[in-house]
Design goal:
By secondary structure, this protein is an alpha/beta fold. The protein has 20 helices and 8 strands. It has an 8-stranded mixed beta sheet with strand order 3-2-4-1-5-6-7-8, sandwiched between helices. The chain starts with a helix and ends with a helix.
């Protein structure tokens, strides 16, 4: 996400790197390039000017410490100002109520229904009892789509296909939730191709009748300034509580994320980063600013790993590693866990300094397919004991997996190297003790 913006900001900030001091001349030049980068990313012109003026004022007002270069200081100031522009701190949704009602609004095609499913999955993982409610009475496939999503995440969906009164459906869903112990009701509503009076009247009527704890406006981030203008129109009628930006994994220029808080004065609460049901993140302005500037987002990466990896499985693997019994079945299981964490390129981009390096590389879940095909073409015995893989077996595996013998050999070499490292760590005491001992021999 924000690849082009990140690249242009990095290029702009390079003008200060290597400079001995911050001066009005080099700051003006850098600020001009930053403003151009923001406008190219479809950030509102007034917003771009305000934030760059603020960066310039802050930079000229600070003394550069001996241990900090002008370039480093400017990156820090820019990060602070981008964070401030996007809201400063994360804001949670309100789920207090019996049940708590979350109303989802937005234009058709913005990803409302998919986000409703993602939010239900997100809340369910927190131990909440959730009910999805189908109140899109116009789009024929909307109810079916929500039911399919509900089945995928094992969340109940309330629908009345013959009823054309959205308010009545939602009210009945709340009664159903109370009777069945559901603590959160997510109401998916109808959208249009453009803002119109009929849609606004309907969503306003729903809000008045339901008095939801949270009203979220879902917007396609790829529409840039149109997204901001649409949010403004909705907010004037609905006074919603927060924004959801979808499709940030696409060719998004980032303008909506950087402009919407300033223009609408409502926080971004969630972002969608893919089609999968777990491709949803709570929006952290500081982390997003760091990612835009190529500084990575290790905290979010660790949080995703904690949500994905099973503690019992981790203990089981740790035991196998200590006993030098880690095999290809274990390796395949770890690949599946990594894929559950989200888009691979997005994950790699969370590592500091790596985002720019992978900007033009084609990295996705398909990158693992040759490895998975090779492992799945092995017999159970071969997976358990890779050392028996002679030339004949390797040739059979290559043919069966649709890969080359060289690819099979490369995977085996990498796997054996990994096992040697694990074995060395075990001899040195394992875990942190092993790592400490390894450093002593460097």
């Amino acid at each position: 996400m924000f690849d082009n913006l990140s690249y242009k900001l990095d290029k702009a900030l390079k003008t200060l790197k290597g400079q001995g001091s911050i001066t009005e001349v080099n700051v003006a030049s850098t600020v001009k390039e930053i403003r151009r980068a923001l406008i190219d990313a479809d950030v509102n012109y007034k917003v771009a000017k305000q934030v760059t003026d603020s960066i310039k004022e802050e930079a000229l007002g600070r003394d550069v410490l001996i241990s900090v270069s002008p370039g480093q200081l400017f990156v820090k100031i820019t990060s602070e100002k981008l964070t401030e522009l996007m809201g400063g701190v994360k804001e949670d949704i309100d789920t207090k109520g019996d049940p708590a009602v979350i109303l989802i609004s937005g234009l058709q095609g913005s990803g409302k229904t998919t986000f409703s499913g993602k939010l239900a999955s997100f809340l369910k993982k927190q131990g909440r009892q959730v009910l999805l409610t189908a109140c899109d009475i116009y789009r024929p496939a909307a109810i079916d789509q929500l039911k399919v999503l509900g089945e995928q995440i094992n969340v109940d969906v309330y629908a009345e296909p013959e009823n054309k009164n959205a308010v009545e459906i939602a009210q009945n869903a709340i009664k159903h939730a109370k009777q069945n112990g559901k603590k959160i009701v997510i109401v998916d509503t109808a959208g249009r191709l453009a803002v119109d009076e009929e849609m606004m009247n309907e969503i306003a009527a729903l809000k008045d009748a339901l008095q939801p704890q949270e009203t979220l406006f879902v917007v396609d981030s790829m529409t840039g300034q149109d997204a901001v203008n649409t949010a403004k129109a909705f907010n004037e009628r609905l006074d919603f509580d927060g924004v959801v930006l979808t499709k940030l994994d696409g060719d998004s220029r980032g303008g909506a994320a950087l402009s919407i808080r300033k223009v609408v004065d409502k926080p971004i609460k969630f972002i969608g980063t893919g089609e999968k049901m777990d491709a949803i993140d709570v929006f952290h302005p500081d982390r997003m600013a760091q990612r835009i500037l190529g500084m990575g987002d290790v905290i979010s990466l660790v949080e995703r790993a904690q949500q994905t990896f099973d503690e019992e499985e981790a203990q089981r693997l740790n035991k196998k590693i200590r006993q030098n019994q880690f095999n290809f079945d274990d390796f395949l299981g770890q690949l599946q866990q990594i894929k559950k964490m989200g888009n691979i390129k997005d994950l790699v981009g969370m590592l500091p300094g790596v985002g720019k390096a992978v900007k033009d590389l084609d990295i996705d879940d398909d990158s693992f397919k040759p490895i998975e095909a090779i492992i799945r073409s092995m017999t159970p015995l071969e997976r358990e004991k890779p050392e028996i893989l002679n030339g004949t077996r390797r040739k059979r595996i290559a043919t069966g997996s649709g890969t080359s013998i060289q690819q099979v050999n490369n995977l085996l070499k990498q796997f054996n190297d990994m096992r040697k490292v694990m074995k060395t760590m075990n001899k040195m005491g394992g875990g942190r003790k092993g790592l400490a001992n390894m450093k002593m021999f460097k």
